[in-house]
Amino acid sequence: MHIIKDYSLQKLNSLGVASLASHYISLNTFGEIAHLCKVLDLPKTHFYILGGGTNTLFTGNFPGYIIQVKLTGIEVLKETIHGILVKAAAGVNWHDLVLFCVNRGYGGIENLSLIPGTVGGAPLQNIGAYGVELKDIIYTVEAIELATGKKRFFSPYDCEFGYRTSAFKTKFYNQYLITGIVVKLHREKRFSLEYMDILETLETMGVDKPSFKSISDAIIMIRKRKLPDPAVLGNAGSFFKNPLISIEQYNLLKKKYPKIVSFRTDNELIKKISAAWLIEEAGFKGYRKGNVGVHKSHALILVNYGEATGKEIVNLANLIKDKVANMFNIVLVSEVNIINEVVA
Q1: One of 164, 166, 214, 281 is an active-site residue; which one?
Q2: CB contact at 8 A, 237 and 260
Q3: Residues pairing with 7 in the sheet
């Protein structure tokens, strides 16, 4: 385990924001994790666990320890008629796990294709796309308790998954270091095809009998068409969560804005509203001010056109939030983790 001082984080966050960490630690083995727990009193240390950096915005330099888990490996633990258990280490690229599974005919994970980031960051956010969330396929989450160095396994119930959140982002925040997950998949021809984009793309591809692989390929095509490549244009994907509002508020908005875009939830009294539609309706799609802006093809994506600072991106986000709140009486909440320079 090596601790590097004054480490640049610019290439470790997909927004491409310049930032320095006073200390950086890369963990490649369980032995290094055990050593970390011994040499640093982590409960009393200011640190941030960084996954792939695709959902993090630094507003300045980080006066503490940035910790990255680089554990690798994917393996099939068990395969029966009742399902397949696949284990992946925290440092594995998420999309690599998806491809590993769909190429073997394992289903349930295909709608989560091309989501950026690492396996370790997936439970924190309860990543999701096109009608599927991690909570739908998770079997266990493996983590190390930082105060004791002991390994613990979390069931889906223990994880307390919610919309883009989990216990690891709330009550267990910075108490555990996620080292891997196990997902439960299947071979049955059960697909999630609620989104018209998927159906239209499958039709364009000439697919009349969908498979896990063809659905994955379709979603890859959709994401590449709609979302900018962070290697070319700095971004963190969806910057805001789709807000949840009461059915009463939705009905009022529907009268004023007949074309409002909404999604069903598990609760019939709650509607999920498209944050992208709200932002576009507020006039921000394609907006640019200096080095920051809103992508011309997707209003939910804030972009760094070159030398933007984290604070400039936050200022733009706040401008959008204020306008949306004034127009719709809806408060947008950031999906991106905003890491402030000053220790609270």
Answers
A1: 164
A2: no
A3: 21
Tell me the per-residue pLDDT of 149-180, one tens digit each, with 9 for 90 and over: 999 999 999 999 999 999 999 999 999 999 99
Residue 106 falls in which region: left (phi positive, over 0), alpha (psi -120 to 50) or beta = beta
pLDDT digits (tens, 9 = 90+) for 245-265: 999 999 999 999 999 999 988
Give the span between the Cα atoms of 232 and 211, in whole angstroms.
Answer: 31
Three state DSSP letters for 41-55: CHHHCCEEECCCCCC
- Of these residues, 19, 113, 214, 238, which one is catalytic? 238
- Which residue out of 110, 133, 142, 335 is catalytically annotated? 335
Residue 143 token pair: 């983590």
What is the enclosing helix (H) or strand (E) of 79?
Answer: strand 74-80
Q: Is 335 a catalytic residue?
A: yes
Main-chain phi, psi angles of 301, to 5 degrees: -110, 115
Contact between residue 115 and residue 127 where contact means Cβ atoms under 8 Å apart = yes
The model carries a pTM of 0.92
Q: What domains sit in the chain, N to C, each tagged with a CATH number?
A: 3-69 (3.30.43.10), 74-185 (3.30.465.10), 234-339 (3.90.78.10)
- Which of 127, 120, 125 has its CA nearest to residue 141? 120
| Model pLDDT, residue 224 | 93
For residue 296, the SS3 value is coil
What lies within 8 Å, CB to CB, of 5 at 6+ separation is 22, 23, 24
